[in-house]
């Protein structure tokens, strides 16, 4: 220690300290920063943006403008986020077929990879919600009862009790949730596409969204069962009344005609 | 002497059944009742069995309803669900809702019983309505059956309201919305609305009284009155004897058909089981009112597709097509015409049928008894009125389900609502005119058939080259059926002067009556049926084809 202390005024001392400091900083940086990955990501990210821009120019720019700024035919996409792109593109809503009250769900035209590239491009225009991770919308272990209560409070007034859809004004509608993937239901809540209000994480925490996804999956998913038999569409008393008149009273009238036609005929004199 | 002994010997000692019957006759007089009624004759027609469908579904409702009362808890006490249905576990709800979920999932046969009860109610009201239309269009409501028409009408209305109360009992999100709707309708009544609401609910909505009160009315009060009315209704059917369609051998003073015992006993008994079978099959196939997926009622929640059962659907239609008119009268009183006008129209549309027999009797001045039915075409105005009523009713049902029409036919709900608003005034008028024209056309066709015979489809070429279609003359029976109806004359105003030469003034009512009567039976409103002379003239040879 004394040696070191004696040479602290050596002309090269500052240089040595500097070398040590640099080595420490560099070493720490190398140890803690995911330098390699970050670099690779950046490259792929910028590549995705590049590819996405090309796809965008071909498929979207005629309505949304060349830079996503929007035109009279389509809204601005600045700040809508990759989640919105994933929802609109992967449910087939975008690219839209024709203008109208509402853009319907239809056949998906882009692959997931292309959609992700489009999403990357749109996300680069301005910050917005990103595509949720799988564990965010995984129904396993979620609180279905809480999801049901939240669904009835926030969703049922447009989408019906179990997500069979409903009418809105002037030809608009809340679509049925049959066959919609959990991811897209989550995204729809996150971004509020078309006529739907959005429920960002500040309004509805991610766990609650997951509970709702789990409830819809339970009531309306592929494995959902209906304990009472045919659900008749799940639309409530209108379809029940129709069924009752046609198959209930209709069948009974047929039976009545059958019974009345089979009778002992009085002999003709 | 010897013969009597022989006869006495041949007679077998009275069996056990006969002894029992004798015992009962000594105390109840069953022999006299049986003698008078067991051979009662009923005519045969499928449309006479529609009332039976209503009767049997009512019995099914009572049977299943008794089962449900064993498990249902009519209480609005809040409980936290911990039963076997996972998506509702841990949710606070009323005991009424919790016990209905329990009936559905944890009571043996409970869900089937619920579904049989509810489907039978749907069929019950539907069959009453169709039965009523049969009676209406065939004129079976005329003297002496007006009172029975009123009884039947009361049964229909009570059936509707009892159905509404039953639909409300589970306290689910759908029915709770319906009760809220009803509360709004009560509140819209000027002056007394708020008092009525407080009286009905025992405080602010929803309170804790409404489900127990509805329960008592649903299982005791209304079914009790309905049972009484039903007995009276059936008693009057026996007393008046059944009506029959006109035909050879059938007059206003006889009934042609089969005896109650054994033919109709067997038929009606068998038909009961057929009705039960159809309703049970429906209930096993299709779900109705899945309250577990609707969730418990909370005043802050609501769902789309919130509609009442079909028989209340026309009230929903009225409220949906009505513009939301609301005024504040100086002084701070709110007049909610957007709800009050539909409420008034609801009452009007509902009760109009009750008065019809009396109105028609007054207009036509017909005070005779009628036991022969009318063919609907021979009474074009009545048939037109009935068809107009049905068209209005169906239009309002469409209005009540306008959201489903919008989503399923890809229409704008606003466009549907406006179409129905206009149709509300226009459609019944068009339907009346069209139906009346169709009836008159059918009368012309009947006249043509009587005078010229039935078209055979056989084309014959005459020697000089003309083509004619061969017409086959009708049988005597067919001719009778087509011409036996009477064609009444309209009521005329009394002669202008009385015996002292004083000019008699006709009152407003008299003038109105004469005018309406001409509308019913005036020259332009029925085709004169062929007379015997006309028939002879045309079939005697000259001028035939």
What does this structure look like?
The complex is a heterodimer of chains A (269) and B (545). By secondary structure, chain A is mainly α. Among the domains of chain A are: 36-125, Cytochrome Bc1 Complex, Chain D, domain 2 (Orthogonal Bundle), CATH 1.10.760.10; 134-220, Cytochrome Bc1 Complex, Chain D, domain 2 (Orthogonal Bundle). In chain A, 53% of the residues lie in helices and 1% in strands. In chain A, strands 1-2 form a two-stranded antiparallel sheet. Chain B is mainly alpha-helical. Helices cover 61% and strands 6% of the residues of chain B. Chain B has helices at residues 2-10, 16-28, 30-37, 50-69, 95-105, 110-137, 146-168, 173-187, 193-201, 210-240, 260-285, 291-294, 313-321, 337-364, 380-400, 402-408, 413-452, 476-483, 508-521, 532-539, and strands at residues 41-42, 78-80, 92-94, 258-259, 327-329, 333-335, 454-461, 467-472. In chain B, a hairpin with a 5-residue loop joins strand 7 and strand 8 (467-472). The interface between A and B is large, with 61 and 75 residues.
CATH-assigned fold name of the largest domain in chain B: Cytochrome Bc1 Complex, Chain C
The percentage helix of chain A is 40-55%
Low-confidence stretches of chain A: none
CATH class of the domain at 36-125 in chain A: Mainly Alpha
Return the CATH topology of the domain at 36-125 in chain A.
Cytochrome Bc1 Complex, Chain D, domain 2
Give the beta-strand count of chain A. 2
Shape of chain A: elongated
Order of the strands making up the biggest sheet of chain B: 1-4
- Supply the CATH architecture of the largest domain in chain B: Up-down Bundle
Protein structure class of chain B: mainly alpha
H/E series of chain A: HHHHHHHHEEHHH
Q: State the major sheet of chain A.
A: 2 strands, antiparallel
Distance between the termini of chain A: 142 Å
Give a brief outline of the structure.
Chain A has eleven helices and two strands.
